[in-house]
Amino acid sequence: xxxxxxxxxxxxxxxxxxxxxxxxxxxxxxxxxxxxxxxxxxxxxxxxxxxxxxxxxxxxxxxxxxxxxxxxxxxxxxxxxxxxxxxxxxxxxxxxxxxxxxxxxxxxxxxxxxxxxxxxxxxxxxxxxxxxxxxxxxxxxxxxxxxxxxxxxxxxxxxxxxxxxxxxxxxxxxxxxxxxxxxxxxxxxxxxxxxxxxxxxxxxxxxxxxxxxxxxxxxxxxxxxxxxxxxxxxxxxxxxxxxxxxxxxxxxxxxxxxxxxxxxxxxxxxxxxxxxxxxxxxxxxxxxxxxxxxxxxxxxxxxxxxxxxxxxxxxxxxxxxxxxxxxxxxxxxxxxxxxxxxxxxxxxxxxxxxxxxxxxxxxxxxxxxxxxxxxxxxxx
Length: 380
Ligand SMILES: [Zn+2]
Hints:
Helix 1 crosses helix 4. It is built from nine helices and 14 strands. It is an alpha/beta fold. The protein has helices at 2-24, 30-34, 37-43, 52-74, 182-200, 206-240, 249-256, 263-283, 326-341, and strands at residues 92-96, 100-103, 106-109, 113-119, 126-134, 140-147, 159-164, 170-172, 177-178, 243-247, 286-290, 314-316, 323-325, 374-379. It has a seven-stranded mixed β-sheet. The protein folds into two domains: 2-148 and 369-379, no CATH class; 159-360, Nucleotidyltransferase, domain 5, CATH 3.30.420. It binds zinc ion (ZN). The site of zinc ion (ZN) has 8 residues, from loops.
């Protein structure tokens, strides 16, 4: 297969540059090595298979690895030197700025040809780089770096508080609930099943390897689908609200670390807030993070402290009589707290229209996997 060959030529080139770097025994400027590329290609015609910017990018990869290593050393970590890459250890090659085209679900790569791709998300903006990645399972992915002009959105005069929780994925201050995507839960079950199967196979056997590849594939699907879900969810809130309030996860983690072992859920929340954060910035929206202290317990109607055990799902206030879903109450508190902190007065909340979009997240958005095709997701 062409791409495998290209990947391996990139690996050899990487090793060659690393060898030169080690031989020099001093800091070798980047352009000294880059200047060698033309004569190298003449000497090893196999390098012709690699597109020119991809060759240059190999050098860039090496220098960024060296830089990373230096950083670790400076921070006092004991670290060896950079190692040569064995067969199969090179995972990516990169087309930078040119040599690629995306037309109607096909990716064209100069020197390689064109191939079908499955886009997990629509590509918006100018693609400035395509990273071709080979996963552990042997499947190929194309990752597009996209340059988007930050598009400032018009004001909506709407604000929202979000409560991230384990029961459902998220509850907002309008009382809308977003569930964990059903397809994700199903995939997670499948993952467990495949993992158990792998453990039963004999270590080092071919069957074990085959089963491990299956596990890796399910992992990849989960990661992609989760990112896709979080992208859509964060996009929805940024598009529809000027002011978004969430809990400060750093503080929340500190409070909950004593009894909450669901780190995986936490890491998805961090990703979600990251996405909200850069999308909000790009669109000129405000994302406020508040201390989660008492947001669950306090009454959003009158402010009284109403203690609830974790399994009590309904907030009932003895002081003012307010009865509502526990997480809905929390989301309102999060919004109020954030507004207090920015010194603004909360306006009357007008009832908002229900958006059907919310119910559609992750419900079978991905068609059946096509063996051998290239999967793609856009980053940006
Ligand atoms: Zn109350």
